[in-house]
Sequence to fold (307 residues):
Amino acid sequence: MQALRAFEAAAREKSLTRAALALHVTHGAISHQIKALEEDLGVALVERAGRGIRLTDEGERFAMRVRAAFGELAAAVQEMAQRSNPRRLRVSCTPSFGARWLLPRIGRFVAKHPDIDLDINATNALADFSLGEADVAIRYGFGHWPGLDAEHFTDDAFFPVCSPRIAGGPPKRPEDLANHTLLRGEDEYWKPWFDAVGLDLPEPGRGTIFSDSSHLLQAAADGQGVALARRTLIGKDLRNGVLMRPFAVEVPSPRRFYLVYPPRLRDAPKLAAFRAWIRHELACDDDASASGAMRPPTRRRRRAADG
Fold:
């Protein structure tokens, strides 16, 4: 089954590299699986074409059959899942989004929709809809997932954060970052922020790298360094004083958040309910940010009341 998945992804993406990214495995793993499949079948399925690949005639025919088989399998899994529990909505998301955004809010969805049973799978691996692994996924990317509906629902931005009690005190000028440990996340780079504030610094090449943004923010809260935080995942840490923003400058992320789902579920009522709830939560976040920006400090309100 793994070899068939590797071949189907390579056939769909026309690239071993993109297939590896789609399945969250290495380029070598994809190549090895396809070679093993070709040896088992006794026929060549793919051949090199510049920097990508192309299917042989046999590969084209086989890819069509494999894709159809995966579609039938997904439909069968979906049908059985619906029969066994038609109320269940299976949601896939990354652990960081689950912990920092979804979990603090999900109780409101459950209270509003007691007829829907949420099944949340927090994983960095992309859910395979062809195998019925999820009904809907929350993905952070560029909106291109062939064969799936990708509905943009919010953007993101980066800015530095640190503990108010960081050793040596929080940086007062961007140049002061040179005196601090810069915490890093996978595929999230400091260089665009450096450029935005006019700092001629290279991308940090040393120090701990975190694959999970919630771990990155926890390390910053513990005073281990200055982190590049994402606006969507900062949660209440700024309001609670666990973290602080030493600088107001932020840079937009090139990636965005999407609800991703197979077209067959486009009009499903439970998906519509989940979609509407997410948009409502985002609107409430925007309203809270706006009112917070206009609200006078608490101390001033108390003095006015006392006077």
The first strand starts at residue 46 and ends at 49. The CA atoms of residues 88 and 117 lie 4 Å apart.
